[in-house]
Amino acid sequence: MLELRGLARTMGDFALNVDLELASGAIGAILGPSGCGKSTLLRLVAGLEHPEAGSIELEGRRLDSLPPEARGVGLVFQDFALFPNMSALRNIEYGPRMRGEPRAGREAKARLLASSLGLSALLERQPSSLSGGEQQRVALARTLAAEPRLVLLDEPLSSLDAGLRRRLRGEIAERLREAGVMALHVTHDVEEALAIADRVYLMENGRITETGSPEEVYLRPRLASTARFVGRGPVIPAEPGSPGLLRTALGDFAWPIGVGPGGPGRLALFFAADAGNLLPWAEAGRPNTLRGRVVSASFLGRCRRVVMDCGQLILELDLDPGAMPRRGENLCFDIPPDRCMLVTEEG
Amino acid sequence: MKPAKPDLARPGIIGPRLVLAAVVALALAPVAAIAYGSMAGAGPGAGLLSPFAAAGQALTVPRNARALAFSLEQALMSALAALALGLPGAWLVAHYDFPGRRLLKALSAVPFSVPPLLVVLSFVLYFGRSGWINRLSMMAFGLSEPPFTFLYGFWGIVLVHGFYNFPIVLQTVGEVWARIPRDREESARLLGAGRLRAFATGTLPSLAPAIAQATGLAFLFCFFSFAVVLVFGGLTGSTLEVEVYRRARIEADPSGAAAIALLESAVAMAVVALIGLAEGKNSAARRGGTPVKRERPAGWSAIALLAYASLIAVFFFGPLAALAVEAFTVSGPPGEAARAGFGNFARLFARAGFLSSLADTAVTALPAAFLAAFAGSLAAVGMGRKDFRGRGLAGLPLAISGIVAALGWSLIFPDGGNALVVPVLAFTALPFVIKSVSGALATLEPGPGLAARTLGASALRATLTIKFPAVAPAILAAGAFSFAISAGDLNAPLVLGRGSFQPIPILMYRLTSSYRFSEACAAGLVLALMTGLVFFAKDGGSDARA
């Protein structure tokens, strides 16, 4: 198990303060906008920067006072950081070499890892002659060859193009699970985090705001900020109205009995963008209805996304791809109570 | 968010300020020794300021005032000439791909590593009274008198200096020019600026610091020029550098030498400060982006390239060719035609003392190169990659000329003898080593070093296996450079040399003075060969590693 307790670091007016737990053998994804402190967090865990307070414990062992080489923590760098003066093979066997393993053994280990990552033909090449995806695989192999107890991945796919990114993220997760090693993966890409991780940590302004399984944070977020970042649908500020109803600027909404707000703080209404059903205009004004004017509509393949001017708010809703709304047309939607969720604005 | 500078990426081993203080002290020591010597010479009761009063007083002596004026004037004209010759080249190498482009960029090593005496010799053989150009014109136009006689005067000095130093401008400015994104100029054009205006808005602001830096450096080298002025300036004028030498070693006037040396160093320090300012602005510009794509020259750019190439061929490679040809030209007895052969080399090697000349060069230049590479690398690593206030002071040794350094250190160690040549040469090469290694450290990516730590390498092993190999080529190159500077240096052995100590530049100087040009050229080629061997050994090392 990895446990971070009150891990703190300030840089100018930015303050990082993190508590986090990750089960042994699990893959965690830290998800947040750029500048939220995710990379700094990884560097603290790796020992490349020093915390001002707090503790780092990995499988019961305190790491925070150890130098990076003694932590058993591997880091796959965003720009790969391959050693330019060494071939791919020498890069991969660097970790075993530092542990003093005999040459034959560490080479065999490196070749085995390389073949599982499809690198066998490239081992004698210099890093500068490898493509981005190949460099990325060498970097992963190099990290795994050192047999760390924890692998940290710092946006390892961000410099690759979209297709390769999708392919490699599956491959990375598979290799990590195969090696049975726990990993902490940092990204700002929601889909990537959901696809790779057992547990997702939302991070904002230097703090972990919400933690859960990928399904939980996507389908049932607790916080409005999580719902906004994940981007599944609109988040509308709300307050308690007459019993059983939420009052919003767009009208009153009922939500499933018994499902209360996730925590303290101001409330907000959240529903998936495709939760709405079109209603005849005459139905407008009932609870759980929305109405507005179509500002624009774009065809996204699996749906048609309309931007609606609802008077107080601009909302994005997804319609059936076959629907053909016109610009300026007035539409009315019904959001069934069982699709409505309550989230809280923190603080 | 910008991540905080990683604690482990900074290789500052010793306190950066301490290292800087040592470099500054090393630079100021010879000047201080000269000032102290002149104070002691002024007799008891002389105040601390008396050396500077003496330096000020020296200006009222017409000969000194003339020397200062001449130094400044020729340095200014020479620097402008270097700028005029270098800028078109900078534009060409930044924007076009053509055969010889790498050669043109590589010429930037010339001002530092080709001994000035060799350059002087080659220009004499090419533009001199009976040089190639004059003989050719006399033959072509049936003249009885050589038409070009400008070489032995002010404009001769400017010509030699201009062609000697233009590669500094070409390299420094070209490197920056290549990285200035062209879209800045293009957007200025699209917003209605004319060609010139767009250049002034989009490109010139980023280019100006580089131009100032390179021109300043050329100015400084010409201001310190010794061998060129010693040979060509005899009738027209004399620079402060030559005057210091004359007073100290020929006219036995130590207090006069001291006053002029202080004057010269004061001017040089002001120039170095200006260069430092420009460099600070320039390095900010250089950090930006990757080089833009280069095109093949076509149309008028091809014509410009051709014109420039011809200019460089005639004025730069021509003299060097004359030098090489002269070395292999054996003049027979009177009445017989000269022929090609190795006779000059045979005569040179048969000279009593030539082999010891070779040995003198080797035993001073090699240790000097090692010392400079070691001390300079240590200083660069010690100062680390952090920018801190006062870092620009590391360039201070540049403001101490070869003659002043030699004179100052000989006052500090009056019994140093010939051995003193080694540290003085190393001192001369020091700023170049610091600059080269600091540059390599600045471009060192922090990632690989940190990655090594996460893979189980201790700080020391990460440095040895990852960081050092990345910087080693720069250290080797700086060492080879230091060897070239040391092996070709005339100033230090001329001031410090005692007895039969006669490294090759001194031998060349004596051969040139007695008009034995062919042998002097042969000696110059042997020197060039030695330097070439060192560079070859350095490159061989890096090839083996790759």
Question: Keywords, please?
Answer:
heterodimer, A: OB fold (Dihydrolipoamide Acetyltransferase, E2P), five-stranded antiparallel β-sheet, 20 strands, about 30% strand, B: about 550 residues, mainly alpha, MetI-like fold, two-stranded antiparallel ribbon
Question: Summary?
Answer:
The complex is a heterodimer of chains A (347) and B (546). Chain A is α+β, with helices and mostly antiparallel strands and 347 residues long.
What is the element layout, followed by pairings?
The complex is a heterodimer of chains A (347) and B (546).
Chain A: E1 2-11, E2 14-22, E3 27-31, H1 38-46, E4 53-58, E5 61-62, E6 73-76, H2 88-92, H3 94-98, H4 103-116, H5 132-145, E7 150-154, H6 162-179, E8 182-187, H7 190-196, E9 199-204, E10 207-212, H8 214-219, H9 224-230, E11 235-240, E12 245-248, E13 251-254, E14 267-270, E15 277-279, E16 289-299, E17 304-309, E18 314-319, E19 330-334, E20 341-344
Parallel strand pairs in A: 3-8, 3-9, 6-7, 7-8
Antiparallel strand pairs in A: 1-2, 1-4, 4-5, 9-10, 11-12, 11-14, 12-13, 14-20, 15-19, 16-17, 16-19, 17-18
Helix pairs in contact in A: 4-5
Chain B: H1 16-41, H2 50-58, H3 62-95, H4 101-106, H5 110-113, H6 116-127, H7 132-141, H8 154-177, H9 182-190, H10 195-202, H11 204-223, H12 227-232, H13 240-250, H14 254-287, H15 300-327, E1 329-330, E2 339-340, H16 343-350, H17 354-383, H18 402-412, H19 421-443, H20 446-454, H21 459-487, H22 491-496, H23 504-513, H24 517-545
Antiparallel strand pairs in B: 1-2
Helix pairs in contact in B: 1-2, 1-14, 1-18, 2-14, 3-8, 3-11, 6-15, 6-24, 8-11, 9-10, 11-14, 13-14, 15-24, 16-24, 17-19, 17-21, 18-19, 19-21, 20-21, 21-24, 23-24
